[in-house]
Amino acid sequence: MTPAQGIAAPLTHVAALHLAPGAIVLVGGLLAVKLLVLKSWHHHRKGRKTAESKQSELEQQLKDLQGQYDSLHTQQQNSAAKTQPPPAAPSATTPAASGKQALFEQLIKENIALREAL
Amino acid sequence: MPTLYHVGIDLGTSRSSITTSTGKRVSVETCVGYPKDVISRKRLQKDYLLGAAALDNRLAVNLIWPLADGVIRDDEQSLQATALILQHLLHIGLPEKQAGDQVYAAIGVPAQASIINKKALIQLTESFIDKVLIVSEPFAVAYASERFDECLIVDIGAGTTDLCRIHGSLPDPEDQLTLTTAGNFLDADIAQAIHKQYPDVQLSPKIIRNIKEKYGYVSATADPVKVKLNTLGVPQEYDITQLLRECCLRLTTPISAAVQQLVGSFDPDFQERLRHNILLAGGGSRLKGIDIAIENSLEAYGGGRVECVQDAEYCGCTGALKMCMEMPTEYWARI
């Protein structure tokens, strides 16, 4: 044993005695923080993966629906083209549009007829 | 730049009203007074007097009421008088109008006015109104209150009572009824009944109208109606409570029957809705208890709900103005 060792030994011992619990706590704390960060990162990755997969799933569903709609729309158009009667002459009693627009249309027609009768 | 004004006009047998897009509304008596002779012409300093001025000087003028039963009488003097009244209405309704400004008007006429009468109105206004739209008066009332679905309008005017079923479109001829049992009929009836009971009483159209407007009622109970009338110049108080009710009932009974007729002949699926959506308009709607009387007359039909418009005098011309202002320009261009 060197003199220095002889002198330092009690100091080291004392330091080890006093500092060891602090170091243990510190290292433990750091480990806990690291674990938490890792866990959170893992969750984030997992969530992202779920969201991504969900989004792609929904996109696929939307594409399917769009396809169905297009097909039905085409079918409807074909069927309407087959069943539509030939265009009729405009009638004085048939409202041209809905609501007030139709009322105005009728009212104007009546007033025009009145002027023509002059 | 010329300004475009819109106006709604209710050309009535007794009073005519105008509402304008500038927010003004005026009502005048539908009468013109022409000086009786040279002396009255010299005193009045005018070729004619209009509305209240003519009535105030009625002893010095020949008074012309150009409308009868809601339509213009078929003679030259009445046509001329109607034109004067319409011009007067525009003048007082649009005092700010300059030469070159344009006026688009919707004029309400009785539900069953003839084509000849409507044509006459268009021709009359050609020289001072730029565009004229002729509308059914009860339809204008419906338009004012935005009642387009299964509604029955009863417009009790002076010359006519117009009834009109509204069901989401312009009314067809079978949806409309015009009765001559109206305000003037009631005036004549009240005068006759008073004279029958009190032969020496002195009456004038103005006195009768005041009695009707102030006391007219059809409800089962009412306060005693005692009026001061002259007998050979001496004022005396007369009790006319029962007499007045009987006269008013003679007005409302045919109206109730007409309501029943229009309800009964309507599509059965919509009759209930129609019965519960009856709107009374015009001066006659101010008779006390008339709404209840019509409701009672519908008991056998399953009951009904009758309302009176808030603004009996201007309701028709307000609806006509609203129609006028809401109608797109391209429609106006077609007439």
Task: Name a few traits of the molecule.
heterodimer; A: 118 residues; mainly alpha; B: 335 residues; alpha+beta; 5-stranded mixed sheet; 12 helices; transmembrane helix (chain A); membrane (chain A); transmembrane (chain A); cytoplasm (chain B)
Sequence of secondary-structure elements of chain A: HH
- Average predicted confidence as pLDDT of chain A: 69
Q: How many H/I helical runs of chain A?
A: 2
Q: Main beta sheet of chain A, described?
A: none
SSE ordering of chain B = EEEEHEHEEEHEHEHEEEHEHEEHHEHEHH
What is the first-to-last residue Cα distance of chain A? 137 Å
Largest sheet of chain B at a glance? 5 strands, mixed
Radius of gyration of chain B: 21 Å
Low-confidence parts of chain A: 82-97
Q: Structural class, judged by helices and strands of chain A?
A: mainly alpha
Helix content of chain A: over 70%
Poorly predicted segments of chain B: none
Number of strands of chain B: 18
Shape of chain A: elongated
Helix content of chain B: 25-40%
Terminal residue distance of chain B = 23 Å
Strand adjacency order, main sheet of chain B: 3-2-1-9-10
Structure explained in plain terms:
The complex is a heterodimer of chains A (118) and B (335). The longest helix of chain A is centred in the middle third of the chain and has 81 residues, at 3-83. Chain A is built from two helices and no strands. Chain A is mostly helical. In chain B, the strands form five sheets. Chain B has a five-stranded mixed β-sheet. Chain B has a five-stranded mixed β-sheet with strand order 13-12-11-17-18, with helices on both faces. In chain B, strands 5-4-6 form a three-stranded antiparallel β-sheet. Chain B is flat and about 60 Å long. The interface between A and B is medium-sized, with 16 and 18 residues. Chain B: Pfam families: MreB_Mbl. Chain B: Keywords: ATP-binding, Cytoplasm, Nucleotide-binding.
